[in-house]
Automatic annotation (TrEMBL):
Single GO term (MF): oxidoreductase activity
Source organism of this protein record: Esox lucius (Northern pike)
Similarity remark: Belongs to the short-chain dehydrogenases/reductases (SDR) family.
Pfam family, any one: adh_short
Record's protein name: Uncharacterized protein
KW Membrane (keyword) present: no
Length: 336
């Protein structure tokens, strides 16, 4: 995609230069307007607009990592539709600021910040207990929070950070909130994954990268785990009124890539105009939240507001079942 964008944008710049040199364009503002229009046309080839008029009055949603990026955009949209939205975030100060932003823009928005550190099982338990003490229903659990390509570190409980936050933390959270989801049926679990899962492999021999750590390999492993978790979860909840979907939001300009270094960092900044905004990145999450269940496939993988095929490794039921068992063992839970 980046190569195509580079070729198209380079052609726009060359055309602009050609016209300017020959006096076709005297006004600098006119040159800028033409360039911006051309760039927007190019951008529209890769990013499609989506909308829905579905309302969510009386519904309750939890969005993890909702203080910024896709999570915040998702929370804002759900609140605009009338849902009660709980922003589940590690940094409660940033979460409160996000609540302030949303309530300032949406009159009467029912949004609230709660502390949730997915790198700490105790924090996950406390969050879930708090939800059961304050909420009677839960219709949407959107597992959005994540870390990407970070230096090696471990969670409070000793898991490699990317696997711990991106997979195990959300696996545990979903387990703890499942009774409320079943009670509130029909309800949905949406796991934000990535097309990067195609490069992933579940390394059961060194799941926490203690022998060797590569940030990209650890990230792709965690994103593959999201796909496999969704696939197995859909089987476990079949007939219970709870459906599950995995989502690739696209290449989005968010803080998630803060650990990515050169030369990828340079490329990211150079083509940032062509990346999705957080609002555009939220489209497929919202699509899976709002589209009638009869039009979706539980356990499916969605990209650009449509069902998409996962890579072969994302369709391995044997690996999915094994990962489920290993995850339960690591967390010390029984979930059959």
């Amino acid at each position: 995609m980046f190569r195509t964008i580079f070729d198209l944008s380079s052609n726009v710049i060359l055309l602009q230069k050609y016209c300017a040199e020959r006096g076709f364009l005297k006004s600098p503002q006119r040159i800028s307007d033409i360039r911006n229009t051309a760039m927007e046309k190019i951008r529209s080839l890769f990013i499609k607009y989506w909308s829905s008029d579905v309302g969510l009055d009386g519904k309750t949603a939890i969005v993890t990592g909702a203080n910024t990026g896709i999570g915040k955009a998702t929370a804002k949209d759900l609140a605009k539709r009338g849902a009660r939205v709980i922003l589940a975030c590690r940094d409660i100060v940033k979460a409160e600021l996000a609540v302030h932003d949303i309530t300032r823009e949406i009159k009467g928005a029912n949004v609230e910040a709660r502390k949730l550190d997915l790198a700490d099982n105790k924090s996950i338990c406390e969050f879930a207990e708090n939800i059961y003490n304050t909420e009677k229903v839960l219709h949407l659990l959107i597992n959005n929070a994540g870390v990407a390509a970070c230096p090696y570190s471990t969670t409070v409980d000793g898991y490699e950070m990317q696997l711990g936050v991106n997979h195990l933390g959300h696996f545990f959270l979903t387990f703890l909130l499942l009774d409320l989801l079943k009670h509130s049926a029909p309800s949905r679990v949406i796991n934000v994954s990535s097309s990067a899962h195609a490069m992933g492999r579940i390394n059961f021999e060194d799941l926490h990268s203690r022998r060797e750590y590569h940030p990209i390999k650890a990230y792709t492993q965690s994103k593959l785990a999201n796909i496999l978790f969704t696939r197995e979860l859909s089987k476990k909840t079949e007939g219970l009124g709870v459906t599950a979907y995995a989502v690739h939001p696209g290449v989005v300009n968010t803080e998630l890539v803060r650990h990515v270094k050169s030369p990828l960092e340079v490329m990211w900044k150079k083509f940032s105009y062509f990346l999705k905004t957080p609002e555009e990145g939220a489209y497929t999450v919202l699509y899976c939240s709002l589209t009638p269940v009869s039009e979706l496939v539980s356990g499916g993988y969605y990209s650009d507001c449509a069902q998409s095929a996962t890579a072969r490794n994302g369709r391995d039921d044997g690996t999915a079942l094994k990962l489920w068992a290993v995850s339960c063992h690591l967390l010390g839970i029984r979930w059959n």
